[in-house]
Structures are given as C-alpha cells and as structure tokens.
C-alpha cells in the first residue's frame, strides 16, 4: 500500500506491486513501483500527473513522480512509475545571487534554502571556505551536491525536506563477513581503468595588470558543431532519429526526444560541445545515467546523456563556460544522446515521450546552425587587432608520486593536473594532490540482503548507507568497506541488494596479493609435477579415481529421466513439446494458435545489446502470458567493456520487468553469446559475460535462472565459465 497526493492536496491510498527503493550515498533516493488500474486503484491512476507525491509508509519518506508509463493489458492498464525523493524540490530554485570571498557553510546553505520548504541541520563544525569566483549562479541542489559538499568536505542524507549534514555518515564496525565462511555469495567488480599514480599541480596565480580593452564576443552560444567532429553529421538509423520514426516504435508514443550518436556510426570517445554556454547541471538520473546540461545565451538547454558510465567521464563542472567544440566528456558506452529544449530542463524531462514541441530536433538545429556559421564566415569582416590571450602563470608548482610505484612496482600513470587559485602554500597543494590521485582500483562488492541476514553469525549487522564494516576477500585480505547503495523492497519478499565500495588499499596489501599469488602458483606447479610423474609411472591415484567415478555416476544419474527408470532398459517417457525462438522477425503472432500447436516454451528476444530494443518484445510477452504460455527471455550480448556488459544486463532486466512485473516471471534469462564482442578482444569475453551475470544477480536473478547460448565454433575461444549458469 502506498499513499498518493496530487498538487491540489487530494489524497488516496492504493495497492502497488514491486515497490523498490534505492538509497545511494550522495544522491537522491529513488522509488519505483507498478500497479494495475483496478477499480480500487482508479483514483490513484487519475492522480498520476506531474508533481504528484507518493509516500511510502515503511520509511515515511515522500517522493515526487518523474516518469509514468501506462501499458494497456486488455481492458485495464498497468502503470510503471518512477519517482525521486521530495528533497529534489530544491532543484526548483535557481540561485542568481552570489556570495563573494570567504564564507561559512551556514551562509551558503542559507542562500540555497531561502524561500523554499527545505531546512538543514549541521551535525558538525566546518571551517570557512574562500571562493575565488564567488558562490552561486546555479540550481540550488547542484550547488549543494557538486560544490559545497566537496569544498567544505561533508556528506548528507535527506529526511523529507530536511538535509542532515555531517563530515562523515555512518558508523564503524557495523558488519563482518568472510568469503567462503559465513558468506558464500559475494560478487566482485574490480575496475582498474581509473588508476593513476602520478599527479602535478599549480596554485596561487601571479596577478598581472591587464589593459582595459578586451576583444568582443561571448563564449556562450554562438556557432554550432557536431559532437564527433571527425565524423560530422554522419548517418543514423530510424530508431536513433528525433521524433516518430520507423525503428522507434518501442518507445512510449513512439517518440524520441533527442538524437542518438552510436559508437559504430559515430566512432570516437571525445564528446564535443555542439553549442556554447554555461554548465548548469551535472548529475545522475535513472534512464539518463550520468548527464550534463549546458544553457546557452540564446535560450537553449542542451543535455548530453547516456554516454558516460561514470561521473568521472564528464570533464566539465557546474559553472564552467564552454565553447562550441570544447570537450564535454568521454563516451564509454554504445551511444551519446543529445536533447535540445528551450523549456526548463526538469520540466522537459517530464515530457520525454510527449511530442508537443517541448523537445526540439537536434539534427535540424545543428545542421542549420552550421549553415549559418558558414554564411557568416563568408561575409568580409573588418580587421581587428586582438591581443593574444596568454595563459595564467602560477607561483607554486608541485607533484606527487604514489608509494605504489616503488613498493608494488606499478607504472607511472599520470592524472589530470590540478590548478587551484585558492591555495596559497605548497603543503596545502601537496595534500590536495594526495587526495586527488586515484592509486587504487574501484572495487564493488555486492551481496543480497537475504544472505546478509541469514549469514549474520554472532554479529549484529547494521545495514545503512554510509556504514562501514569488514569483508575478508578471496585473497585472504581484510578489506574495510562501506555501504554505497542499498536497494530494498519494503512490501514484498524479494531479496534486497547491498553494494559496498572499497576504501583505499595500503601498499602492503598489494604486496600480500602478489606474494599469495606466487605461493599458490608455486604450490600448484609442484602438485602438477608430482601428478604427472605418477601418471608417467602408471600409477592411478585412488583418491582421484574415486572422485572421478563419483562425479561420472552423478552426471549419468542426472541425465537419466527422473534418475529412476521404470525398467533397467526403458526410461520413463517424457513429453517435451516444441520450443521456439521469437523476435521481431516473426512479425504479428497469433499466440493462441502457437500455444495450441504443442509449443511448451517460447524464448522471446528482448534486445540486441542496449542499443536495439526488440520491436515486438512487449507485445510478444504480454500476449504469450495472456494465452497461458510458458516463456523465457533472451538478449544478444553486444558489450564492448565490462561496464557496458553491466548496463546491458540492467537494460535486459528492466525492459523485461517493465512488461512482466507482478505477473508470471520468465523461466530463465538467456544471454545469446555468438559473436566476438568486447571491442574485438576475445580474451575479454569471459570477463564481459561474468560481469553481465553478476549484474543480473544483483537485480535478483540467480545463476540457476541464467542460461548461456554459445556459438559452437567460438566455444573454446570464449573460455566462458560454463560451471556458473543454470544451463548452456
């Protein structure tokens, strides 16, 4: 049961399914749920309009609706709704006023919450901060999360309209788990791509007198360009184009609110600004991923989204002024989505699938803008002498090298240099360099909450975002970890998900890893050498023989029908029926006839990678279930990296649940692995598929519900972990 309140203050309760809450450190909590428009839910269905509030009784928190997707199920509709914590209302305020020079945290917060319902509580004392360019000029929540949190060094959480601010959230020693002891299912995701071991920086600018005259022109607005200049406009498939086009039917109303630049048709990682302006938002939102919005002097809000798997892939920050062609960030997904609107961005997001003129056609705007650029360039301009803009010089220069370069023999990997106008002494600069270097991998450990509770042996585990605890990992190293994210289901029995992130490792721990690997490798070599010697002498080890015989018997028994034949020679007859593979290529299907034709299982395609959603999958799933058929779902593996594989898994699961949530669930989720992906590196296929499966685990799909379909001619090359899935 959830409670709903519209903008008029009208309230009602309704029955919802699949209620899911995700609390993440440093972000707004999110809520998602589904419900069917039954007579008792009819009033609630009519209240699913902009700015409606949902309250969850279990945590007494309120959330404001962001997206609403009704799907027809015969005579009724099923609504899939997502909402963001009501503290997001802070984004309704744009702070024009600016505070200059040195300010207290209180004065900055007072400016942000002025004339809003939001309040704050400071649980610690904070030093003042010197702003070189002042504080303000942005949306209140962006200034809180992107500026104040890092400048003053605090963390926060929301209790409805109250912001609680502390130097560090959470408590120490809140949980303890040991892999292969009191925990048997910890999934790991280790990302080494962000490691840096060397950084340099400069501070304290040298002030020089400059002439009063400056060259004209603004860095905002002005010319237009394509985000991947080497490709230019390029070509697009129908599903990538703005508006309603063939290939985009899978979207609500068939409408696409932007233009997608695919990594195949528009190669390259550097995402360039298509128009000048000021960065007003840098944030994360479900469906958009990590995104950035640039506002131009001529009134355009331009969003760059779905291209950045991590916030670190976005180069610009709120308050930065960019020119056409400047690098916005680095794409490491399968496509970049660009949307253009002249409406307030947060209002426009609510109309992502509405073709009412809120969203504009980026292809036409950029193409016409470039044409205007060229026509203006062809007009003879009066010559003007402009003094060359010389770079700022700095008085303090320093560098920092990670101790891992010497102690763990890591290479020198340079981080992006730091420039800080506020620092005035070398020690402060060095401390900032140390804090800015990333000389440890990003490691996430995921454990479902059912196991978390079940395995809490003699330890009172406290599960809250920000809490610290201990995991003993597979290397035998005790790792202090912190709960980064907690996804829970307050109104059903689905296993909750807890995600941990690691703290910085000590160099000694990496030496321990290397030493343990060396010792195990040496022991393995000695064991193999001894066994080979015994085999050469014709010796059959009784323990090995017994183990092999036992496994062989178990395998044969398992393969026999029911393991208990009616006679020694005649197994029990078992009717299998037909199993079919269904996708958009079969066109319109009469599902009642299909089920009547002795089809016992339909394996329905949901997607080809993340980029292509099967055009008929929603219809096929709905009608197969309505006809009483048994079904499974599958997705073609097309990932270029492990992070891409994780995104594909999330899309696969979410697209499936968008249709079947609250209904008959698929018998299994199949991953179709029949081509060399992972950027063409066959040696990475195992890691990619493992990451895909682990992400499905995180979403609640166990290994025994995952099936791998593997191309026969590539089976050996892929070297997949065939012991893990429920079937091959």
From TrEMBL:
Q: What is this protein called?
A: Peptidoglycan DD-metalloendopeptidase family protein
Q: Which residues form the Prophage endopeptidase tail N-terminal domain?
A: 5-85
Q: Which species does this protein come from?
A: Ligilactobacillus salivarius
Residue ranges under compositional bias (Polar residues)?
370-384
Q: What is the lineage of its organism?
A: Bacteria, Bacillati, Bacillota, Bacilli, Lactobacillales
User: What family does the Swiss-Prot or TrEMBL record give for this protein?
Assistant: Belongs to the glycosyl hydrolase 25 family.
Q: Where is the M23ase beta-sheet core domain?
A: 255-342
Cite a single Pfam family from the UniProt record.
Answer: Peptidase_M23
User: Which first-to-last residue range defines the signal peptide?
Assistant: none
**Region (Disordered) residue spans:** 370-390
Query: Domain Tail spike: where?
Result: 89-504
